From TrEMBL:
Residues 22-176 form the N-acetyltransferase domain. InterPro entries: Acyl_CoA_acyltransferase (IPR016181), GNAT_dom (IPR000182), Ribosomal_N-acetyltransferase (IPR051908). This is Acetyltransferase, GNAT family. It comes from Vulgatibacter incomptus. It comes from the Bacteria. Keywords: Transferase. GO terms for molecular function: protein N-terminal-serine acetyltransferase activity; protein-N-terminal-alanine acetyltransferase activity. The keyword Transferase applies. The keyword Chaperone does not apply. SUPFAM superfamilies: Acyl-CoA N-acyltransferases (Nat).
Amino acid sequence: MDASRPVTLHTARLRLVPCSPAVARAADSGGAAAVEALLRVHVDPSWPSPDLREVLLGHAEAIEADPALWCWGLWLVLDGRARNLVGDVGFKGPPDSTGTVEVGYGIVPPFRRRGLAVEAVRALIEWSDIQPGVEMIAARCFASNAGSIGVLEHLGFRRCGGDEAILEWELLRPFP
């Protein structure tokens, strides 16, 4: 599968689509309402999160400059019927020289505690498993975020470092 071509990933309850530069720019400038108008799906007013908003323009610019990065950035997580944007998941770039990619994710508050983050991250793990050059998936989360810790543990990530505030995780090949 060519990581430079946009694809849609399907799970039992979700659709994951790479975030286009147009959607990233709309989210940055107009927030949930602008994305809702563009995609014609319900977008909770809490999306995008402040952390995500900080990277949206950079995401758009990176894809515009190098389309090969299309699937190595932000993906939108939609419910299976594509009526709601329930969150986001993605990589912080393509594999580095050691074959490591870092994954991040967020589910909007009304859709949390339903296993959607596990399902979305698992879809990206399966997708990255067939991409050349990926040997390890890294993740970081706040030490106080029990939900994210549970997601990573459920998916087989192993804690490999961090400090009192931020925990570091890794998932090595073969991916579960």
